[in-house]
Amino acid sequence: MFELVEAFVTLRENWKRTLLTASGVMAATIAVVLLASIAIGVRKDFTEQVQDLGVNTLITIPGKLGDSFNFNLGGASYLKLEDADRLKRVPGVLRTSCWTFVGGGATYKGKQAASFLVATTPEWFEIKSFDIEEGRLLSAIDNEKKVCVIGSIAKEGLFGKEIGLGKKITINGEFYEVVGVTKDQKQEDSLMAIGSFQNLIYIPYAGLHAKEPESQTDRIVIQIDPKIEPISLLKTLKKTLGQRLNENQFDILTQQDLLKVVYKFTNILQWLLIGLTGIALFVGGIGIMNVMLLSVGERTSEIGIRKAMGAPNRSIFRQFLIESIGIAFFGSLVGLTFSAFVCLLLARFSPINPIITQLTVWGTIASSMFTGMIFGIIPSMKAARKDPVKAIQNLN
């Protein structure tokens, strides 16, 4: 207890040095906490978007999703409308919908939105629940019409604050009338908004394929009975598609499969963060050790007096080690406080929604204190081994 009090008094009396010495740990804490909290926030946003589809929704993709990236996922597709019709007849399947990714862009009075174009069948709007801000959703009566439904983010990009319903936008040189606008506040505020359903423009699948018969089907969305476990139906669905396609020409993904993709990337990011943490804390620890070594030299007389008064080596060692740990602890607290403030600003004034977890907080504090302890050992040992006679001579 005596060493703890003495260490605290020393740090308080030399608060400028303490602050300067702790700056390395502060910087490391700020960098790690901000990056980790942003990564956790992005992961949460993506997870919510995938979960928004529902656990009973499966996605058929062109190509096999394995450990390595399959370039065919964004290229040639062997899927066809007849595959969706065949899947629809599988017991337990409620409905299916086809997607075709449309190249080009949408413009209105010369203004182009950074939105994605998708040709889809009306069943999609039964599979995915949408809140309607204006108008209506696509239905079977629109199959031969030049109409579209747009998300609220796409609408904002094209029309700003104006009403979108009834306006005609140009898609690849042709006019399409906006018959509906969807809205989802959660997706609008998400960092992943650019890739959310609210940044899509939907046109009729049948109309596109009637005009361009060679257009491919890029995705088949399958909705199954919520009472049925998706995994139990996968084998039957794959067998059904396997009647026409090779097993390497398609894959059917569950919600968990979709989440594994983003989790794989965030796990890589976590390892990068661990490496960054190690480097940053090492630099901060070197700073603590250097300053503590200087402190030992400056406080030689103090050490000599304490030893002359009967203080054992272990007491001197503990005091200097506690000071080192205290500096690191102080740096982590200041860094955490600053990081929390920055996260609040990001959440308030940007689409980024950082999340600081308890694991991040306690992990950062523990890592910082461990760094202080490791890099404080050498200065503490040097102080404890001081010869009391030679140390006292420094008084003269």
What's the short version?
Helix content is 55%, strand content 16%. The protein is an alpha+beta fold and 396 residues long.
Main attributes of the structure:
alpha+beta; 2 domains; elongated; 16% strand; 396 residues; single chain
Describe the structure.
With 396 residues, this protein is α+β, with helices and mostly antiparallel strands. It folds into two domains: 2-48 and 262-393, no CATH class; 56-253, no CATH class. 55% of the residues lie in helices and 16% in strands. The protein contains 13 helices and twelve strands. It has helices spanning 2-13, 15-51, 81-88, 124-127, 152-159, 185-188, 205-211, 230-242, 255-298, 300-308, 313-349, 358-384, 388-393, and strands at residues 57-61, 93-102, 106-108, 111-112, 116-120, 131-135, 147-151, 168-171, 174-183, 200-204, 219-224, 251-253. Strands 1, 2, 3, 4, 5, 6, 7, 8, 9, 10, 11 and 12 form a twelve-stranded mixed β-sheet that branches. The longest helix is centred in the last third of the chain and has 44 residues, at 255-298.
Structural class: alpha+beta
Average pLDDT reading = 81
Q: Supply Rg.
A: 31 Å
Note the gap between the termini. 31 Å
Sheet with the most strands, sense and barrel status: 12 strands, mixed
SSE ordering:
HHEHEEEEHEEHEEHEHEHEHHHHH
Shape: elongated
Which residue ranges are poorly predicted, with pLDDT under 50 across at least 5 consecutive positions? 67-72
Number of strands: 12
Number of helix segments?
Answer: 13
Helical residue percent band: 40-55%
Strand content: 15-25%
Count of all domains: 2
